[in-house]
Design a protein that fits this description.
The complex is a heterodimer of chains A (448) and B (227). Chain A is mainly α. Chain A contains 17 helices and no strands. Chain A is globular. The chains are: A mainly alpha (448), B alpha+beta (227). The interface between A and B is large, with 44 and 44 residues.
Chain lengths: 448, 227
């Protein structure tokens, strides 16, 4: 297949961003990279003079870096988990979504996984974790779980990309060496297809428990300590639910943006947004259920230190954070997503954006208030994040957009071969499957 | 194994702060300046909590000296990813400054907020090097530090008594804060050794420990104020 043949392909829209690298992308990429360089300079100031450039203090010794760490890792749950569940449940509508979801996971996991290193006072001693690592420390559980998840999800992203890479290799898209290397000799024989299918199936089953373990273990960092407000048994599932919730919102935002920018209206149809929107609403309800359970048990028991923190969130210094979290995470999504008139694509975009902000506020709401109210009466401190911390937050967001931009300029963001497969075999397969669901017809009712 | 512990009599404490300054000069505790101190960046190995009870005009101020409690079941050592803080063979919670990666997990896990962090490279005045205590290592930026019960004194006393092949006397190992206390409110010794004053004092009906409900088994016992 050559380029001119490809242009006649019904799915050319998917290859277009890769084949025609416009000037706009370069300008946007250059701008993002410049911003990123500036944030790295800010990080340089922290490296040279110490963590004193942040707004952290005693007792609030964890702040934005840990909040963003939990937040980004949370978003990474979108991808692989959702795509694995959709594949596993044989949802046909998954086809245009899975690739984007998986890319989110790989990128955000890399960004989030680096956050604890930013937070270290001595990043130069990072390797001590391998020399002297104590597996009794929840931080080590984290390192283990995140590296495991990163390995699994990048492989899970890469494997279904191989046939697409091979198409680009065959049609001579530059740089040839990249596609030649990454396509791994794929020619599309029956045996190769069989192997790929097996590998994807094994991975998607493996990836689900790994994904769940990652955020559970992150919640353990907090819940394993004796601090009131953290020492809670529901933290594991609570974090996982929140992670999936913010993850779905992130997928929706990415889908809506790419649909607009790359004109993918023919692939990402309103039905996809309706289904994912419903899923978002379900997660919203689940998230609210956990939040309600957490605060009700705390308030009803009325243990003084627990109460001190809860009141600090409800009516004390953190009331704006707490109540805007409720607004963004519950009120706005419920109003939009449970109302047929508002549940349009732009409505879903607003709801998803609110959820992303709300989930970030939730992480802030978990980390800081508990630290600000220690058990013993030490001098009261307020945490005001410094410019460096904001800059590094921006760095995370910019790195995400930049990485996605680069990815979309080298690989199709929608899995082409899966779309083609769906078009060719999807309807037949679903018809057969539907037929197999139907109850058997017995000629004589009541007698078998 | 000895169980080194401290008994602090709140009846006798006047809140004078002698223990704090003795501790600072003994352990080369860095000063951070008034600006950073306002910001919550000051470093204390021995600190005094001020608790104001009641409302004006019926006000009572309670001073509570607070070193590291050297828990027998320390929550901070559990969470350290690199064993930079650990319970040593003398039963003290020790820090290894040159191994600490500065994640501050131990600070977060300590229910008593006794650990401090070096937010900047400590500023040392010019004549500091002349007056510093050579027995205590200097800390660098980005590591956690805290009270060690003056374990360098224990090391010296232990070596001396072993050299002379005899048992260690109570007076041989006393932290700087104990020596400096003008009212003898702070008493230090081995809880297990019946010859030591603390073994008697800790059984006082006034004795209590901070947040015993957490099960951390702190080795600092307070004698509550009577009045």
């Amino acid at each position: 297949m050559t380029l001119s043949e490809l242009r006649k392909d019904p799915d050319y829209a998917l290859f277009k961003p890769v084949v025609e690298k416009g000037r706009k992308a370069f300008i946007l990429g250059g701008f993002l990279f410049a911003v990123f360089l500036w944030t790295m300079y800010m990080y340089g100031t922290q490296l040279s003079s110490g963590l004193g450039v942040t707004g952290l203090n005693r007792p609030i010794s964890w702040g934005f870096y840990i909040v963003n760490f939990v937040f980004f890792i949370g978003i990474s749950h979108a991808g692989t988990l959702i795509s694995a569940i959709l594949r596993l449940s044989k949802a046909e509508w998954r086809r245009p979504i899975t690739r984007m979801a998986e890319v989110i996971t790989a990128i955000v996991l890399a960004i989030g996984g680096l956050h604890p290193i930013i937070d270290l006072g001595r990043p130069d001693r990072l390797l001590s974790i391998f020399y002297y690592g104590r597996l009794q420390s929840p931080l080590l559980w984290d390192v283990t779980a995140i590296t495991c998840y990163f390995a699994a999800s990048t492989v899970y992203l890469y494997l279904p990309m191989i046939p697409d890479i091979a198409i680009m290799r065959d049609m001579g898209v530059r740089p040839q060496w990249l596609y030649r290397f990454l396509s791994w000799g794929w020619t599309g024989t029956e045996r190769q297809k069989h192997c790929l299918d097996r590998a994807i199936t094994i991975l998607m089953v493996m990836v689900i428990p790994i994904a769940v373990s990652v955020h559970t273990v992150i919640s353990f960092i907090f819940s394993m300590t004796l601090q009131p407000g953290w020492h809670s048994t529901i933290f594991g599932p609570y974090f996982v639910v929140g992670a999936i919730y913010s993850g779905i919102a992130a997928i929706l935002i990415v889908m809506i943006v790419f649909r607009k920018v790359f004109h993918l209206e023919g692939y990402l149809k309103p039905i996809h947004f309706q289904y994912l929107g419903t899923l978002l609403l379900v997660m919203c309800a689940l998230w609210f259920y956990f939040t309600f359970a957490e605060y009700l048990t705390g308030t009803y028991g009325g243990e003084p230190h627990e109460m001190k923190i809860i009141l600090y969130k409800f009516a004390g210094g953190y009331w704006p954070v707490f109540w805007s979290m409720i607004l963004c995470n519950f009120v706005i999504p419920v109003i939009i997503l449970s109302n047929k008139k508002l549940k349009t694509i732009s409505g879903i975009f607003i709801a998803s954006f609110a959820v992303i902000i709300g989930m970030w506020l939730e992480r802030l709401n978990i980390v800081v208030p508990s630290l600000a109210n220690p058990l013993l009466r030490v001098p009261y401190q307020v945490y005001i994040p410094s410019l460096v911390e904001w800059a590094l937050f921006l760095a995370g967001v910019v790195a995400f957009v930049l990485a996605f931009l680069v990815f979309s300029k080298f690989f199709p963001v929608i899995s082409v071969w899966e779309i083609k497969e769906g078009r060719k075999e999807g309807i037949e397969v679903v018809k057969e499957r539907l037929a197999s669901y139907q109850p058997d017809i017995t000629t004589q009712p009541g007698k078998s | 194994m000895p169980s080194w512990g401290m008994v602090i009599d709140l009846n006798k404490c006047t809140g004078c702060g002698a223990c704090v300054s003795a501790c600072r000069s003994e352990n080369n505790v860095p000063n951070v300046g008034p600006e950073q101190s306002q910001f919550g960046r000051s470093i204390f190995w021995m600190d005094i909590m001020e608790i104001v009870e009641g409302e004006y005009p019926d006000v009572r101020v309670q001073y509570i000296p607070r070193p590291c409690f050297h828990c027998d079941r320390p929550p901070c050592t559990k969470v350290c990813p690199v064993r930079a803080t650990y319970l040593n063979e003398e039963g003290l919670v020790a820090q290894i400054y040159h191994r600490c990666i500065g994640c501050r997990y131990c600070m977060v896990a300590c229910p008593y907020t006794v650990k401090s962090f070096n937010w900047y490279e400590p500023e040392r005045l010019e004549d500091f090097l002349q007056f510093r205590n050579p027995d205590v290592s200097l800390r660098m930026k980005g590591v956690v530090e805290k009270c060690s019960f003056c374990s360098h004194r224990l090391q010296k006393a232990r070596e001396q008594s072993e050299f002379e092949s005899r048992d260690m006397e109570e007076a041989e190992y006393q932290p700087a804060c104990v020596e400096a206390c003008p009212t003898s409110a702070i008493v230090f010794g081995d809880f297990e050794n019946e010859k030591h004053t603390v073994s008697r004092l800790r059984k006082s009906y006034r004795a209590f420990r901070m947040h015993e409900d957490l099960g951390t088994e702190p080795k600092v016992v307070y004698l509550s104020r009577e009045d």
